[in-house]
Specification:
By secondary structure, the protein is of the alpha/beta class. The chain contains eight helices and seven strands, in the order E-H-E-H-E-H-E-H-E-H-E-H-H-H-E. The protein binds nicotinamide-adenine-dinucleotide. Nicotinamide-adenine-dinucleotide binds next to helix 1 and helix 6.
Length: 255
């Protein structure tokens, strides 16, 4: 039995590591997927992989920083999929220039918030009426374990944006619950993507960080995709307003 049968899902940032793994898992579980990304090539590659695996996906290009593009992508997804039941607000950026609040660069803070937080707001605003029209469904936001933890190697603009998404998730859950739209957020620890690996340039830095992980490894994009799939599914029908940390146990580990 599949967990997302007949669902129609829109995944932002669907061309990236977690978005691609999630799209493949959603489709494996029976959903038809609109893969939205600022890069059409990346979205098209995800859709190709989904279709090759026997699923059904369409690629759509949109920049989450642009409200008109967000509206257009949501409407096109709704027309081509015949509605929307699930929105995964996964698109997000981090920057190697992002450090402490003490030397915060306002332009960088705006850029990171425009994608991570405002992108979540824009797609939610446009997709919620479609999800309501479908009789209800789920919005899954993408936070980070940095929303609940400080970090001695700070990325404060990113952290603040993900903390805001966690708060927004709870408020959205309260507002949208009466419309039968559940809203939850995932708060992953480091996922072993090429981008994150750049933070650990040498084996010593990597193993120092890994020592904090009781399970002895960083996450995989599929770890996040499987949880997103469960949270989006009817199996989680009483789950809303939660920020779910998945981090291999690192936030429990006082070293
Ligand atoms: N990788 C991690 O360790 C980790 C940990 C916690 C949370 N996250 C979050 O998970 C999400 C996905 O991360 P990932 O590791 O797959 O990153 P990624 O860089 O592989 O994928 C992000 C995708 O978003 C797209 N994107 C970026 N800006 C966009 C825009 N303006 N409009 C539309 N699409 C845009 C990119 O083209 C890319 O395909 C992000 O929100 C990230 O903050 C990642």
């Amino acid at each position: 039995m599949t967990t997302l049968p007949t669902k129609r899902a829109l995944v932002t940032g669907g061309g990236g590591a977690i978005g691609r793994a999630s799209s493949l898992i959603f489709a494996r579980e029976g959903a038809r997927v609109a893969v939205v990304d600022v890069s059409l090539d990346a979205a098209a590659e995800t859709a190709r992989l989904v279709n090759r695996a026997g699923g059904e996906a369409i690629p759509l290009v949109a920049d989450v920083r642009d409200d008109a593009q967000a509206a257009r992508a949501v409407d096109e997804a709704a027309v081509r999929l015949g509605g929307i039941d699930v929105l995964f607000n996964n698109a997000g950026i981090m920057s190697h220039e992002d450090r402490s609040v003490l030397d915060g660069d306002e332009e960088l803070w705006r850029e990171i918030h425009d994608v991570n937080l405002f992108g979540t707001m824009r797609f939610s605003k446009h997709a919620a009426p479609h999800i309501e029209a479908a009789g209800g469904g789920a919005i899954v936001n993408m936070s980070s374990f940095l929303a609940v933890l400080g970090c001695s190697a700070p990325q404060d603009a990113y952290t603040a944006s993900k903390g805001a998404i966690a708060s927004l998730t709870r408020s959205m859950a309260v507002q949208l619950g009466p419309r039968q739209i559940r809203v939850n957020a995932l708060a992953p620890g480091p996922i072993a993507t090429a981008h994150v690996e750049q933070f650990f340039p040498d084996p010593e830095a990597r193993s120092l960080r890994l020592a904090r992980f009781p399970l002895g490894r960083f996450g995989r994009p599929e770890d996040v995709g499987e949880l997103a799939c469960f949270v989006a599914s009817d199996a989680a029908s009483w789950l809303t307003g939660q920020v779910i940390v998945l981090d291999g146990g690192s936030s429990c580990n006082y070293l």
